[in-house]
Amino acid sequence: MRQEDLDVLRAMPVATPTMIINGKPLMAKTGATLNVVSPIDGTLLTKIPDASEADVNVAITSARRSFDSGAWSRTQPILRKKIMLAWADLIDKHAIELAVLGVRDNGTEISMAYKAEPMSAANTIRYYAESIDKIYGEVAPTDPSTLAMILKEPIGVVGAIVPWNFPLMISAWKIAPALAMGNSFVLKPSEVASLSVLRMVALAHEAGLPDGVLNVVTGAGPVSGRALAMSMDVDALAFTGSGLVGRTLLEAAANSNLKRVFLELGGKSPHIVFDDAHDLDSAAQAVVMGIFRNSGQVCIAGSRLLVQHTIHDAFVEKIVNLTEKMKVGDPLDLQTQIGAISSEAHLRRIQNALHGVDSIASGGFQILSETGGYYMAPTIVTDMGVDDRLVREEVFGPVLTVSRFKDELDAVTQANASELGLAAGVWTSDLGRAHRMVAKINSGVVHVNTYGGADNTVPLGGYKQSGNGYDKSLHAIEKFINNKTAWIKL
User: How far apart are the C-alpha atoms of 413 and 408, rounded to whole Å?
Assistant: First the structure.
């Protein structure tokens, strides 16, 4: 990846995007559109269709028709595999184009976006493509006079609503296992970051995906997202986003066809550093990157730092020094370490979360406003208690709270004093302590002497109010299948 290539792609105009329904480009029936503003410099990039309920229903009907036809759901597994692998290859071929388009849309630093977006999406699609002809049914151990089989069937039409922070990666987490099992799909990306998703889905059709199997509608969540959730013809709904919206989707499912709803609702993840950590410099680097990459707009961001009291002051000094050396700025500059906040509205929400806080050790203010973009200095807030609002509520921005703990029991108590439980991190050289912490922390992922980086071989899912169901790994397939029992008297 060369800077000159990025500069060329940055300067290219963005063609007016369309929704993709039944394999065809469509605008909203009403002609309504939403502005796409780049967080890099606040300029208008393009406009996306603002779908109405009628548009969403057309997409759902298209998905249902494709599913019932068997064009994908009943085709040979080896053919589904071939098409999905071809799709992944096309994503690889267009990876830099996709990454730059996404960065212009949501502001993630390109060095992270390239790996976390197109490359991750392609690898996820390959992973589930390779699983297609390796998922078997079962024969139950019944009386010899009976044959009992457990058949794995696609659930039908799957809807998904994905956020703006990693639109390609998270879309692939939902789409790939669902398509691998033969389902049809309707995707609703965030109105803040739809451009790269639309391009990725266009590549799926270029790879040979039948019309109607994968549809994309764009627009405001309260309209198009609600239409998906309320549909009587969507069999399962997958969502990544806020707890407030997650609750709304559950209510919509209850008020419609009781569709299955799978939620990943973010976290307030504790990052715990004991005084016996083998390398405090590495721990400090991991803490800083664990919260400030993508300006803290990461579901598993280690936003709550818990430091043992014996090393607290020295460790805080380390992370402050590292933080203040990080380069915040143009996300399409290869030297940038922290990019833009996704939108002006989200920048204001982050600033409001810091209102009245007086123990800021670093940052806490908007920067680079002269660019027209939305940037914020990475922020470290010290002397935090478990009941402080910043410690309890997910900010989803470059804000790290720091608290002291006395011993292992105190660390576990503080770590678990949250309604959320998506991820956690522990730094210690004591193997026994590491195992105890993994067992006692109520989070779906517990990192030890590292933070982040888990691949498709392991599931990602939350405890408590961080959600239900799993993305990634073979466990994600379970969301998108029905287990049918065949009980046959011989």
Answer: 9
> Is the pLDDT at 15 greater than 90, yes or no?
no
Which CATH class, in words, describes the domain spanning 270-455?
Answer: alpha beta
DSSP string, 178-191: HHHTT-EEEEE--T
Beta strands in 192-276 (DSSP E): 214-216, 236-240, 260-264, 270-273
- What's the pTM value of the predicted model, to 2 decimals? 0.97
Residue 323 tokens read as: 């933080």
Q: b vs e for 116-144, b when ≥16 Cβ sit within 10 Å of the residue's Cβ?
A: bbbbbbbbbbbbbbebbeeeeeeeeeeee
Q: Which CATH superfamily is domain 3-265+467-489 in?
A: Aldehyde Dehydrogenase; Chain A, domain 1 (3.40.605.10)
The residue type found at 202 is A
- Domain spans of the chain? 3-265+467-489, 270-455
Active site residue 299: yes
CA contacts within 13 A on the Cβ side of 135: 27
Joined tokens for residue 425: 């991190």
The answer to whether the CB of 267 falls within 8 A of the CB of 300 is yes
Structural contact between residues 195 and 14, judged by C-beta atoms closer than 8 angstroms: yes
Q: Annotated catalytic, 264? A: yes
Query: Which of the 8 DSSP states describes residue 159?
Result: E
Which contacts (CB < 8 Å, 24+ apart) does range 405-408 have? 405/272, 405/306, 405/307, 405/308, 405/309, 406/308, 406/309, 407/308, 408/274, 408/433, 408/436, 408/437
Position 396 confidence tier, pLDDT thresholds 50, 70, 90: very high
Please identify which of the residues 264, 317, 344, 370 carries the catalytic annotation.
Answer: 264
What does the block give as tokens for 310?
């014996």
Q: What is the arrangement of strands in the sheet containing 236-240, beginning at the earlier edge strand?
A: 24-26, 19-21, 214-216, 184-188, 157-161, 236-240, 260-264
Distances (CA, A) of 282 to 287, 289, 322: 9, 11, 11
CB 208 within 8 A of CB 83: yes
**Mean pLDDT to the nearest integer, 166-178:** 98
Q: Which of 109, 117, 299, 394 is catalytic?
A: 299
